Amino acid sequence: MSGQDIQISGPDGDFSGYLALPEQTPAPAVVLLQEIFGVNADMRAKCDALAKEGYVAFCPDLFWRIEPGIQLTDKTEAEWARAFELFNAFNVDNGMKDIAASIEAIRSHEACSGKVGTIGYCLGGQLAYLSATRTGSDASVGYYGVAIATKLEEAKSISKPLMLHIAGKDEFVPADQQAAMHDGLDDHPMTELHDYPDMDHAFARTDGTHYDHDNAVLADGRTMTFLAQHLRF
Q1: Catalytic residue from among 165, 201, 210, 230
Q2: Which pLDDT tens digit goes with each residue over 49-93?
Q3: DSSP conformational letter for 138
Q4: Beta-strand (E) ranges in 1-153?
């Protein structure tokens, strides 16, 4: 397993991302979609972990139009302030173009078997949902995605499997939005929603304030089973 930064050619320009390769290739691939902290150490570690599980893993720099190379942590007030500035400046539609380009670039990579999914966290959780509605992702997983409830009209476009992990006490996704997600998606044949009633936002961010080992392991186990089902067979 090895990791390196590579360049992707998108419709609006070139941007970078972190690529981790498994020991045995070709293999199915996962495009990881960042939180508001950029392609930081946590996202790189998640890529490395997926590579150890036998997946090609790529995390594109979705903030490149604003400031390329962002790598923040959640440990200081200054970094949180900058992260929210980036979030507020981020254009979702442009980001989705970059995600679509990343999916197709990784699909054509010599290490990829042809199947490509997405996993996203926070902002990336919303983008994972949109990757199921707007891109060629073969399977998509969103963790505590924000603002999904405002985009449920796109659910009619979902044609490939989607899994969402919902934190019941999410400070950024209130109960009415969670209920709307269930109302809009529970009956969709391609969607699978899991609730974690006592969890707050980012419960799967290792070493984060709200990290919960047991629930993170539960959610990640469901994700790995989902990926194996839809990307390996």
Answers
A1: 201
A2: 999 999 999 999 999 999 999 999 999 999 999 999 999 999 999
A3: S
A4: 2-10, 13-21, 27-33, 56-60, 112-121, 140-143
Question: Catalytic annotation on 212?
Answer: no
Q: Is 109 a catalytic residue?
A: no
- Residue 207: what pLDDT? 86
Catalytic residue among 98, 138, 170, 212: 170
Residue 156 dihedral angles phi and psi, to the nearest 5°: -65, -15
User: Which pLDDT score is estimated for 2?
Assistant: 65
14-48 burial code (b ≥16 CB/10 A, e <16): ebbbbbbbbeeeebbbbbbbbbbbbbbebbbebbb
Q: Where are the beta strands (DSSP E) in the chain?
A: 2-10, 13-21, 27-33, 56-60, 112-121, 140-143, 162-167, 191-196
**Does residue 178 carry a pLDDT above 80?**
yes
DSSP 176-220: HHHHHHHHHHTT-TTEEEEEETTPPTTTTSTTSTT--HHHHHHHH
Domains detected in the chain: 2-231 (3.40.50.1820)
Report whether 45 contacts 65 (CB < 8 A).
no
